[in-house]
Design brief:
Elements lengths: L9 H6 L1 H19 L1 H49 L5 E4 L5 E4 L1 H7 L27 E8 L2 E11 L1 H5 L12 E9 L1 H13 L1 E8 L2 H6 L6 H18 L3 E6 L2 E7 H9 L4 H6 L11 E6 L5 H17 L4 E5 L4 E5 L11 H15 L3 E5 L6 H16 L3 E5 L8 H5 L12 E2 L1 H7 L4 E6 L11 H5 L2 E6 L13 E4 L6 H12 L7 H14 L9 H12 L4 H7 L4 H12 L2 E3 L3 E6 L7 H12 L7 E8 L2 E8 L5 H7 L3 E2 L3 E7 L3 H17 L4
Parallel strand pairs: 9-10, 12-13, 12-15, 13-14, 15-16, 16-17, 19-20
Antiparallel strand pairs: 1-2, 1-5, 3-4, 4-5, 6-8, 6-9, 7-8, 10-11, 18-19, 20-21, 21-23, 22-23
Helix pairs in contact: 2-3, 12-17, 13-17, 13-18, 17-18, 17-19, 18-19, 21-22
């Protein structure tokens, strides 16, 4: 076998060099014969001796050299295999199906498997599926985890075509087989270091005392400084315990600088500072509540501060007593379990009324718009704004696309009424055609752009005014010229009624308009039973003086027999889930507006002892409408926000698409279970 092996390349040429020199010597010898015969004979003898020695050495050394080369190659292959076997980098060979066919010691140590492990790589790394193996791409890489370690897995195709083409055993025709080389690069230490750096990044927070003035007024004057000192100490001590900096920037405002790791701690314990501050009590009748806004993951400190300002605005707009964490991609809410305290002063209402008067006076046309499927509060508030526009001698239109059964009696009072223009109530298409460069859009009873009656109007109108009493969410109407959003107000009609009193002395409200505004307050407060405060009754008294008739209003909202039966059926079929949550469905096929019946049924269920919250599901226009209600123990707003909806702490709702009623009930139960386990409700 050794004799059949031939050398080639540079080594062969090197060994044949002596033969080539001998040939050159023969040529030189012939030349010397021409010069001197005797010298040529001497050189001939030397050439013969030279060839004998060289050929003898070649014949003798060739087997020795071949033995050495074969031995070296064998030892070199063994060394390579040993080096690969003992390589510190975890390495394995897979077939094209992902099955392990060879592993080195480092790989076996990493995955805690013996040398003969031959199962699929997916059994060790579930994320490395067959679809992720190199196919069209010759090389892929992605992150994987094993136990407590993180790796970057690099997979590379090794084609077998060239190897098998020289084989006498396997046919080469159309053979496209390949192996996969897998390398694992440990990035655990790197990720820990990056996480540590990320944890040390700074976050900016703002802490506002929600009811600072009201709390001070509830305690005697000599003890007020002590109450302030205790609150300051509570906040400063808590922030200091998180290795943060807390600086009081105003009498009721704090600027907080924390590490991101501290924010993670606060989120884990759901911002328990919100509850800790309420324990400060030195005889004050009203517990102090705070709102927290945190800005996180911004590109700069300035951006984090801007995030914190947006977050605190959201927290206050949603009623206070809660924390909001805002990042570039997300907004997370915590707390919000208590009602916002009603402000006794009307200064804000007077300021907003003056600002509204200035805006409308500078415009040619006023367009008033509420939310989709307008309700009594939305329409009543729109009527109030229309009265302001009429008083200021401006053309006004109210956008209503879908007149529901409950709204029909009120709309009829304005149609064919000589006191009002025929185009007072228009649809969204007419509004788009009428809008001009000098028009103002007044949005009432909604602050979420996507659920307004005509979202396109928000883009067409440069001047926008927002009046709403719903808690703000992540999606808000931006760039509003005037925004008056008060979560403590019972209804938008209450807010508009207050503004009407400050527009001017010459304003006169008709009895029809007073009835509409009074109806909005009555419906949203469930006949003055929920969310009513001093200002609610003052607004109702103003409307009564302006000509609102309780009897007329009551007649407007008498129910049909079918509606009453549907509501009664929903109440009778209610399931009391977890001994506290009433869940039912409203299936009134004969009811023109089943969503209203469902909302009324949800209110009725709160009269059952032990029920903390009620949820009524109604199938209407190929969607599932959910009406959620509570009295004081559960914040149904945050429950509905989980399902893409929103509302108030006690009145909220959402819509579900592509779901059956049974699936909707299952989703609500799962959401309740999750939030109860996490301590969110």
């Amino acid at each position: 076998m050794k004799n059949s092996i031939k050398l080639k390349g540079r080594l062969k040429k090197y060994l044949q060099t002596s033969v080539y020199l001998g040939i050159l010597l023969v040529i030189v010898n012939l030349g010397i014969y021409l010069i001197d015969y005797r010298a040529g004979l001497v050189l001939t003898c030397f050439v013969i001796f030279y060839f004998v020695v060289v050929l003898s050495l070649l014949l003798y050394n060739k087997p020795v050299i071949m033995n050495e080369l074969i031995s070296f190659a064998t030892q070199y292959g063994q060394i390579q295999r040993k080096l690969l076997r003992d390589l510190d980098l975890p390495h394995a060979l897979l077939d094209d199906e992902g099955k392990i066919i060879w592993t080195n010691a480092a790989f076996e140590k990493t995955v805690h498997k013996s040398r003969g492990y031959r199962k699929s790589i997916t059994s060790l790394f579930p994320t490395i599926t067959k679809e992720k193996l190199p196919g069209e791409a010759d090389e892929v890489e992605f992150s994987v985890s094993f136990e407590d370690s993180d790796y970057v897995a690099k997979l590379k195709k090794i084609s077998l075509r060239d190897m098998e083409e020289g084989s006498d055993i396997i046919e080469v025709e159309d053979y496209e087989g390949y192996l996969i080389a897998l390398y694992l690069f440990d990035e655990t230490a790197l990720k820990i270091a990056l996480q540590e750096v990320d944890d040390q990044s700074l976050a900016v927070g703002l802490i506002y005392l929600d009811n600072y003035d009201e709390a001070l007024e509830s305690v005697e004057e000599v003890r007020r400084s002590l109450l302030i000192a205790l609150i300051d100490r509570k906040v400063n001590k808590y922030i200091a315990g998180l290795d943060g900096i807390c600086k009081k920037i105003e009498k009721d405002k704090f600027l907080v600088i924390l590490r991101k790791k501290a924010i993670a701690y606060l989120q884990e314990y759901r911002f328990d500072l919100l509850e800790d501050v309420k324990t400060v009590n030195i005889g004050n009748e009203m517990a102090v509540t705070i709102s927290i806004g945190v800005g996180l993951n911004g590109l700069t400190y300035a951006q984090n501060y801007e995030f914190s300002r947006n977050a605190i605005d959201l927290a206050l707009g949603r009623g206070g007593d809660q924390a909001v964490v805002k990042t570039p991609n997300n907004t997370i809410y915590y707390g919000g379990k208590s009602q916002q305290v009603e402000k006794n002063t009307r200064v804000k209402a007077r300021v907003k009324a003056h600002a509204l008067k200035e805006i409308i006076s500078g415009k040619d046309k006023v367009i008033v718009m509420g939310h989709r499927n307008a309700d009594v509060d939305s329409f009543g508030a729109a009527v109030g704004v229309a009265r302001i526009a009429h008083t200021l001698e401006r053309k006004v239109h109210i956008v209503v696309n879908n007149v529901t059964t409950s709204l029909q009696p009120m709309v009829e009072m304005f149609k064919n009424n000589p006191e009002y223009d025929d185009d007072l109530i228009i649809n969204s298409q007419q509004a788009i055609e009428m809008v001009g460069n000098n028009a103002v859009l007044v949005v009432v009873d909604v602050n979420k752009p996507s659920i307004t009656d005509c979202p396109e109007m928000l883009r067409l109108c440069k001047s926008i005014v927002v009046f709403d009493h719903h808690r703000q969410g992540t999606e808000v109407i931006e760039n509003a010229t005037l925004s008056y959003v008060e979560a403590y107000a019972s209804s938008t009609c209450e807010m508009v009624s207050e503004i009407l009193q400050y527009i001017g002395d010459n304003i006169k409200i008709t009895s029809t308009e007073a009835d509409c505004l009074y109806s909005g307050i009555m419906i949203d407060t469930n006949n003055f039973m929920t969310k009513t405060g001093v200002r609610t009754f003052e607004a109702a008294a103003f409307l009564r003086r302006s000509g609102a008739d309780v009897t007329r209003v009551r007649k407007l909202f008498r129910e049909d027999a079918a509606d009453y039966k549907a509501k009664a059926d929903a109440v009778s079929q209610a399931e009391i889930y977890r001994n506290a949550y009433a869940i039912s469905i409203c299936t009134g096929d004969d009811v023109l507006n089943p969503t209203v019946a469902g909302a009324q049924a949800a209110n009725e269920l709160l009269n059952i002892k032990g029920v903390k919250a009620s949820f009524i599901l109604t199938e209407y226009q190929n969607q599932i409408y959910v009406s959620a209600r509570s009295i004081d123990e559960v914040n149904v707003q945050i429950i509905m926000e989980r399902l893409g909806g929103g509302g108030h702490m006690n009145i909220a709702g959402c819509q579900m698409e592509d779901r059956s009623l049974a699936e909707g009930i299952g989703i609500i139960k799962h959401t309740l279970d999750t939030m109860i386990e996490n301590g969110e409700i």
